[in-house]
Amino acid sequence: MEDGGQFSLLVDIRTPSENRSRVHSHQFKEKGGVEFPLTEIVKEATKNIFKKTPESLAHVVTYFRIVARLLKKPQIHSMLCIGNWSPLDESLAEILPQFNPVNKFYCLSEMRPLGKFPSVNFIFAEGGEFPLPENKFDTIILSERQIPSLEMLLAVKDYGKIYFTALNSSIEESLQSLSKIFPLTAELSLLELEILPHFRQEIKRHTPAGILENKKSEIIQVVSTLPDVIEKFRTLPRKKRTAVLDECISEISRAEKILAEIFPELHSDTIKFNFNVMKETLIDLRLDNGSLSRVDRQYKILTQDFEQA
Amino acid sequence: MRGAYLISSNGNPSIGGGWNNQQLLKDCGLVPYLLHKNHGFHSVMVGIKVDADYPYLEYVRGLELDFLPEDTLKARINYIDSHAGYIDLLILYGAYPAYIPLVEHYKKIRPDGKIYLATDMNIAWGDRIPHENPAYKNFLHSCDVIAASCRATQKYLSAKWSVPVDLIRNGWYNFFKVKFDDVSKENIILTVGRIGSNQKQNHILLEAFAKVAKDLPNWKVRLVGGIEENFKPYIEKFFSAHPDLRERVIFTGLIENKSALMEEYKRAKIFCLSSNFEGAPNVAAEALFGGDFVICSDVDAAGDMTDDENCGKIFPIGNVDALAKIFLNVCRDEKLISNGGRNARDYAREQFDANKIVARLNYLLYGGDAN
Predict the structure, then answer these.
(1) Nearest CA among B222, B218, B232, B253 for reference residue B331
(2) In chain A, which residue's Cα lies nearest the Cα of B155?
(3) Which of A55, A273, B296, B354 sits CB 3.0–4.6 Å from B173 for a disulfide?
């Protein structure tokens, strides 16, 4: 198979050292002779591919890479297919328990496919919305039109993989934006993405919940410097006090803009207003029209509001 | 030198497309004037000519007026094009959607320029603004400082809009060098404004006073301002019903002389506002500087006008009995009035001094780089 200009085997069932699955590559029959269970599984799967549908080459390649992965992983395997149900997925669902009877195949779909698929656990997402559990699947397969999201990446276990059955411009665009979060490896050219443990924290920081938490922390960080600023104001000479206040107000103004962005997500109707009044008391102090007691008072109001939010 | 240009809104009949002589001394003229006087800006008010003469320009020396040839968006866009290099700060008065194309245009040619939007609104108006409309949202996000003129409105807009909302009150500036060391208070309940307008609800004040006038024999009411025609029959009816109050309820008419007007505030012990709605009325600052105990209806700015009743009392809008009861209690409590009046002056100096307010605005816009 062509792979980055080179030819390589996608599934090598001839070398027992490559097979770390629970399926034997060969075994001796009681009455003599040798049988090849692994070969049979792969043969069956291959037969399915070409019998059931003329899939795209990319899809077939992905399929074989997943089978190859199953051979290399002795652990229990949990697999999720997201998007349009295809016969290849059906085929994977059928062979998965043969590697380990407790292996599970899930399919997240908006519609129930016609026919019965006893080896598949369907999850129905109404309106395309379904909260994916974190750190749950060894493999996620994204069907052709499915755009990868941060939530999907988080649903994969450490060292688990996401497979793309095709790369189109929307997926490439999405991957491009993901590459800003963490470096995408050359694996991508092979239509797969491995979730390494250190990516997880980085990914989490970029999910909507993570972004909210980051922004909250940033605001709290700015607010937490206020007691120090007040103390400096009490002790420093006038010129230095002005510089300290200018810097502090500039930071408060920056944090206020962040607060305005996340305000609808917070459990307080007044925090944005109280934050602004905090800024106002500091500006008044800076312009010799305020008092430290007013700053202190407003700081207490604000911290109470933060606790509530 | 930074250039501050206040451009009027087009297509808004209540503004009239330009600035009148009176507005030169109100907050819309005062802010650019003090940016010029105290902070070295080159300040210009831009709009169509609405008055034949502008005698108040004498009091705001250095503040310029530029007249547009017509009240259209095109005229304003052309003005921005020809003055873009000078307009470092664009000031907008009123949160009108009509400003949206103006702001978009300005930001295109002066992305480094600042925009100050003085919303000058009451909550009822704010409630009708299409703040979730993408174009309006973009307009709000293009502004560097968005200000409400009273705390209640600020709190309301802060909760509603996706941008920070600052407080820039309508302050008072001592244009006429009024002295406050010779204040001698009389038993006067004062009100100032367009007498008889639906907004001011002066009949509430008159009826409340009539209810308790016998118990407050030494007290008078002075109503200062032009009288609406349709209110005159009511006045006659009022005096027919209460002939004994003809000498005690005085309609002064409009007092154009600002010094004389300030004397009215200085003389009165109580200032009363009975409006059914108000944003942040200019009379608030004048009454507080005049050292008046402020009694006002529960309009948006009621808390600001009374320093949360530290220097006044608030009554429910339209409630004659509640106002009458307050008159009775307050007018007979000399200590309350004098303490309230003193608090009012202190509070005014701290919160309504236009110099301080504009200094804060300047800092909000330019931070440590403010002049």
Answers:
(1) B218
(2) A273
(3) B354
